[in-house]
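Narrative summary of target 7.
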Amino acid sequence: MKVVGVGCGPGLLTEQAISAISGATIIYGSKRAIALAAAYIPKGCEVREITTFRPEMQIPEYAVVLSTGDPQLAGLGYLGGDVVPGISSLQIAAARLGIPLEQVSVVVAHGKEHEGALAEVAAEVERGKIVFLVADPKLSTAALGRALARSGKGISVALCEDLGYPGERIRIGTVSEPPVPVSRLFSVMVGRIVLSPEKKQIQ
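Modeled conformation, tokenized:
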């Protein structure tokens, strides 16, 4: 089995991912993942749309499983097999904001209990890290702001929506006035973010 990262938006497939998809005879993936890979799925390939991957699912050893973003970032890398890395929302957000990846700590709140994740974000910010928060549609940026209330001044909350898509948008707010998401597809960068002059227009 190959677990293939299809990137977080259109046009972000790597050559290795394209090769794996082009040679597939059966493909599993979410509706969004399949759409991102559609141009390279060969004729005659069986495509199975999956809404939720469960441990008891029987996936053939020769299957290609599509994972949005990178399989190892809140993706399907846990399924095992050969993992083909993808371009993640973390990489895109860091590039857009000009943040070196070595300054970033990752916290996953997607599909998990939010209170603990937000406490982890606050702890990492207090350590001086910039946190990339993998969110889900139910995550409240207002609750994030409250969790960061004691983290000191100068903390920015960068809301990254639809990264990699034509309508992507990044808005930067404060702990007291964090941006509110409009899209269901969003992530958040939190910390003492210093934008370079050429990135200032993001605000």
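Strands lie at 2-5, 26-29, 46-49, 64-67, 82-84, 104-108, 130-134, 156-161, 169-174, 186-191.
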